[in-house]
Amino acid sequence: MTGLAKGKNRNPKVREFHHLHVKNINITYIDVGDRNGYILVENFQNSCFVSLSIISFLFFTRKNSKLISCTFFLNWVVDFNPKRFNLNLTSLWVSPNSGFPKFMAPTPSFKPNHSSQSKTPQSKQRLNFNGIKSAPQTPNPNSVAPAEHPIEVIARIRDYPDKKEKPLSSILQASSNSSCIRVRADFGYRDFTLDGVSVSEEEDLDVFYKKFVESRINGVKLGDKCTIMMYGPTGSGKSHTMFGSSKQAGIVYRSLRDILGDGDGGEDHHLGLGTFVQVTVLEIYNEEIYDLLSTNGGGGGGGFGFGWPKGSSASKVKLEVMGKKAKNATYISGNEAGKISKEIQKVEKRRIVKSTLCNDRSSRSHCMVILDVPTVGGRLMLVDMAGSENIEQAGQTGFEAKMQTAKINQGNTALKRVVESIANGDSHVPFRDSKLTMLLQDSFEDDKSKILMILCASPDPKEIHKTISTLEYGAKAKCIVRGPHTPVKDDESSAVILGSRIAAMDEFILKLQMENKQREKERNEAHKKLSKKEEEITALRAKLDMVEGKGTTPTSEEEINLKVNERTRLLRQELEKKLEECQRMTNEFVELERKRMEERILQQQEEVETLRKRLEEIESQLCCSRLGCGSEENDSKDMESSGFARRLLRIYKSEEDPGMVKSMDLDMDDQEPLGREVSIVGGVVCKSDYNAKQNFSFSNQQCPNTLNGVQEDAANVFAPNFGQRVCLSTVYEEEGEGEQDHEDKGDEDEEVEKEVIEEKRVCTVDKPSAAGSFETSKVSKTSPKKEDYCFKASSVDDKDGESNRLLRIQNIFTLCGNQRELSQHIGTPIPTKKRSDEAFDKFSPAKTNGKDSVFKVSNKENLEPQNVVGN
Ligand SMILES: Nc1ncnc2c1ncn2[C@@H]1O[C@H](COP(=O)(O)OP(=O)(O)OP(=O)(O)O)[C@@H](O)[C@H]1O
């Protein structure tokens, strides 16, 4: 067997865990199911009990009822010396829960060596198993006194705070034998086994006192020491239990009465005449001890009699701790319970109380009432602890308030640690962690002292967590075990103490394990329930999605129809919207166009009007100049009454002037943009086209001199007004050489007709100067040179004069694009282009007569400056 040591243990009250690994032990009888056993580990020099805790058993391996190996914890090792830890396992002892070691089976190799039982120098607390060892075959359980639990734990369940809100079933239920309390919650329940349970509703303070406290007080009367502590969260009824209420007296006053008797004269049938008590009332607040019976002006302690100052408003006296007691604490002494009770009542009101979220009048301090019975040496300590709530629960805000709560909790926490340490058998018990535990040290350490812990709990479901933690604390305190008071042999006593403690611990661990299993079970169930609920939620969510239309697969035809209808409705709406939009846009566009057209029409009308006026002016001027301005009025009337087209027709039909064809048209629809210039040469208003690169040529040698001035004037007046849109052209033609001669200018019958032709391709203009202005060629009145003409009209002779005239007119109309008008006159349609080309052919320079006054006609593309007359 080998082992690992973790240190030495010199204190019999201290337990340390040591880990041992045991191999190849041959044990015939072992009840592995008994988890509260002991193993006796022995060698020739040493022997000890070791506990088989639950954990140890987890590592046991068995084969055919034989323990092959085990790994366990040594809960207690006396005088442990690692160097000498080559122990031979000689026998195994399994103790029952009572803590009595029981011999199970000796190993065959067991050879006790009695000589090895001498104590080592450090073996002050060594366990000696003489008694046990000497009776391996006949173990005597009665040889060891049973262990004692120095702390008794009782639960006191207060009334439901608000009876109106009281639920049908309480969360706290006491078992029928009043030793177990069950805490019920939604998720399960938990049982706590205590020394007693009292429900306030069923047992008032009187019954409670008689049932659980009275016996203790009787012990005090006989000289015992007892500490009664009220522990629990705030508002759970600690102060109520301790001091009672106006209706019923609390433990303090009942105890006094019990000790001193009811009679006023101290006729105590228990203690006899002359029995008296000394009472000290202390308050521990903010980790300071205050003497509630004393003020600054009062007796400084140690007084005897009723010498304490009165009045709760007097300032409190702070006390120091000396040893395990408050130094110079004031006490009152007497044998009249009533008087003393009244004084206690008074000072009790000096306690610091505060309203918190949990309690309207919450005690913010621990209060200790110490009753000494000097005649018998008995002592009763009654402790009302401040609420064990945490800071958040108390609803404390601000640094000071939080500090206060923290300090209150310091006492509670320290007490908890003390209880745990004692219960665990720790080598160090932290009594000095707080003033409260310092004053309570004797209560825990003194063998004669007993502790009654009253766990106050509320049945309010809101307080369930605090209730559980309070009960857990009490259960822990219950584990504290102590050896018998009767002095026994050191070794035996220690062994029994050890056994008792271990048994209690094992019991506690077992309980915890059971609880753990139970909780695990509950947790699993809760988990299952949760999973089920989650599944339900998922199903419901899917259903909801389906209803809202989020589902991916519609199930019924109705749903499909619904969806289709909905979709159709949406699409229709969209379409209508778009149609409206289109309609609106169309209306806007039409309106815009209409406005534009109107503007254009107006503008063109204005232009036409202007043109008409100008034309009339020009014509009148021409007539004037021709007639010598004699019959201006008549001429103007003529002009007004006749349009150009009519006049042209008239000319065409006229007999008296067969050689002259006048053509004039006013094109209102010319959309040619820029590039129009108007020049008037020799009485001819002529439009030139910049689109033809200003290749203009114009010759008017044949124009009469008299017209020169007029035409210039006309040009001056006219040109600026028709910069862009003027579409006025004049073709001036003469028929017959004789008639065209400038020499005949005096002849009044000779009439020079203007023909205005709107044309794009044909024009006869002067070549523009380099600066872009038109220069009118010098008019040669007498001898127009042949080469000056680039284009000559077809020679007109008598026989084909008529047809020529017709052709010319056709040509002009073709050029003007006025075919319809022409067709009306000639009765036959003329293909535009062809006729136009033919006209050009006829007017080709080769066919022209040099004497004729001709216009050079060329296509846009063929307009060449070198061909312009006058170059
Ligand atoms: N068993 C009971 N029956 C009736 N009323 C009770 C009972 N226990 C407590 N109360 C009432 O509940 C209130 C709070 O009780 P108490 O002051 O005793 O609580 P506490 O635990 O001392 O709180 P704190 O720690 O804050 O001082 C008091 O008004 C008290 O009268």
TrEMBL record:
Transmembrane segments: none annotated. Residues 505-621 form a coiled coil. The lineage of its organism: Eukaryota, Viridiplantae, Streptophyta, Embryophyta, Tracheophyta. It holds the Pfam family Kinesin. InterPro entries: Kinesin-like_fam (IPR027640), Kinesin_motor_dom (IPR001752), Kinesin_motor_dom_sf (IPR036961), P-loop_NTPase (IPR027417). Belongs to the TRAFAC class myosin-kinesin ATPase superfamily. Kinesin family. KIN-10 subfamily. The keyword Cell cycle does not apply. Residues 733-754, 827-852 are annotated as: Disordered. GO terms for biological process: microtubule-based movement. GO terms for molecular function: ATP binding; ATP hydrolysis activity; microtubule binding; microtubule motor activity. Residues 733-753 have a biased composition (Acidic residues). Residues 150-480 form the Kinesin motor domain. Gene3D superfamilies: Kinesin motor domain. This is Kinesin-like protein KIN-10A. GO terms for cellular component: kinesin complex; microtubule. ATP binds at residues 232-239. Keywords: ATP-binding, Coiled coil, Microtubule, Motor protein, Nucleotide-binding.
